[in-house]
Amino acid sequence: MTVRTAGPADLNAFVASAAALFAEDGGTRDPHMDQSWPARHGHEYYGAAIADPDVLCLVAVDGDEVVGHLLGRLKGPNPVRPSVVGAELESVRVADDHRGSGVGGELNAAFVAWAGERGVTEVTVHAFASNTAAIRFYESHGYVPGSLQLRLPVG
Ligand SMILES: CC(C)(COP(=O)(O)OP(=O)(O)OC[C@H]1O[C@@H](n2cnc3c(N)ncnc32)[C@H](O)[C@@H]1OP(=O)(O)O)[C@@H](O)C(=O)NCCC(=O)NCCS
């Protein structure tokens, strides 16, 4: 298994992995999540991400098979937290049959190294509160809980 930067030839597999993440994560945890979004907009969105120097798109590859992906991006300055140079881990997934063997850890480590080389001082990630496995994964890599979003359905 190797982790490498995604190129245009990886776009279909990258979109497929992102769509699988939508289905498994948001699709089971947020009734408002549009699971058809990756099929309709994924090629445009992730194609632009692969070409953007301020975005890191990684694939984990086992032979010819893409078994995981990560997308992380540099964030713009935040005037109310001026001392922070931020990056966001926007999307990470490892195929079910490859989990628990360090692939996610390698993807995260490559992202954190990429961010550090660009002067980033803080990496953030959002997770559904019910995704306890992902939260444990992040915590095992040094992330600590930050803000908590609360929702109130109205009407
Ligand atoms: C979260 C995810 C990317 C982790 O990838 P992975 O390859 O399984 O993770 P690793 O094998 O590198 O695990 C690294 C650490 O995380 C912990 N961890 C990973 N999965 C875990 C789980 N299901 N439950 C508890 N801890 C877990 C392990 O204990 C391990 O810690 P250790 O190295 O101290 O033993 C993967 O489980 C996944 O794709 N999940 C579904 C998609 C998802 O939820 N993505 C995140 C959305 S916010």
From TrEMBL:
Domain of life: Bacteria
Record keywords, A-Z: Acyltransferase, Transferase
UniProt xrefs under SUPFAM superfamilies: Acyl-CoA N-acyltransferases (Nat)
Residue intervals of the N-acetyltransferase domain: 1-155
InterPro entries: Acyl_CoA_acyltransferase, Bact_Acetyltransf, GNAT_dom
Keyword Metal-binding assigned: no
GO MF, one annotated term: acyltransferase activity, transferring groups other than amino-acyl groups
PANTHER family: AMINOALKYLPHOSPHONATE N-ACETYLTRANSFERASE-RELATED (PTHR43877:SF2), AMINOALKYLPHOSPHONATE N-ACETYLTRANSFERASE-RELATED-RELATED (PTHR43877)
Protein name, entry field: GNAT family N-acetyltransferase
Originating species: Umezawaea endophytica
Species classification: Bacteria, Bacillati, Actinomycetota, Actinomycetes, Pseudonocardiales
